[in-house]
Amino acid sequence: MLKLANLMAVVAAVVVTVSLLTVVILMVRELRLPLVHRPRPRNDAPAGPGEPSAPPHGRPPADRGAPKKGVRAATPAKRHTPGTPGHGAPPRLREPSRTLPALSPPAASAGRPPAQDETSAEEQHPAEPILTPRRSLPALPPEKRPEAPDAGAPRESVQLPETVPQRQCEDGAEVWLHAGAATTAGRHRRRNEDSHFADTDLLVVADGVGGAPAGEVASKLAVEAVVQAWRRGAQHTHHHLQGGFRDANAAVLQHVKGNPRLRGMATTLDACAVIGDRIMGAHVGDGYVWAVPPERTAVRQITMPHSAPQGPLLRMIGSSVPVRPDLWAIDACPDTRLVLSSDGLPADLDERELHRLILATADMAPAEAASILMKSALKAGGTDNITVIVADVVLSGSIEQPLLFSE
Length: 407
Fold this sequence. Notes:
The protein is of the alpha+beta class. Helix content is 30%, strand content 16%.
């Protein structure tokens, strides 16, 4: 009886063990744990809950056959199958299929990619050029303006006042000045204190004294006084120029009297005019006047500065001492060229180079020659205000208004 009881106990234990193993096996299969190797499901087998979808019908498994285009052949080595979840990140074999369209965009209806179509449209219809306001909107400095006027552009003739007599040579031809001018503040000055006037019978250049207050006011008053004195005369002589210089000095002093804070303002002054068959001029300060004969073979300096070398001015308009201008005169021969300038022109050009430039531009129009001389001084340094007037003596019945270049 004891042996039978032991045998039945063993059998019961074996049955319980087998039952437990069976239950465990069923649970493992139901949960698909990786402890048990399970064969790969077929393509048409339905996916279980939480299991990624199987490959599309008719497509070979990812680890069999040739890999898809754009997918590396080494990816099947990961041995990740839809039936074995829980092994790290989702399979990457499907990522290229989602990113390939972005890498290779489909062709447009016309057979070309959209990017190419857009580029073509831009090439066919280019955008408007972008203009730099600093270069296009503000007024250009003199060195960037055209050097010569348009020859075909009509210019208004100057009607001289009735008080100005006809200027005639011995043969009865009238003498006129064909003039052009250029002016700039230079590269190192904030203001242009020069003033000038150029007409068919009168040329004036004034340079406000540097360091003194309101130099531009003094130069403007001086030029206006000379022009007004000249226009008042009926029979012009050199006395009209002298009177204009006296009026200029008085005008500056009177302005200072009404504005004591401007005490000390002054200016240089050079002027020349056609008087009969001669060109006569007056000079105070450190301005310059040159003459080039009709042969255009030499340059003659007519005026000398009223100042010591590297020293202050000895004569100026605006001085309490009565002004005594230097007077000069030359024959009004046709094709004689006159060059008047403030001291800014020779400030950065030595005498030899300046004479060479005057002769090199002798056959150019006065306005073009004045612009080139001014630009040359700017290129050489432009340390001071620069004003240049170039005029040719001509014999004719009338002359057009001179073209002026200015800032």
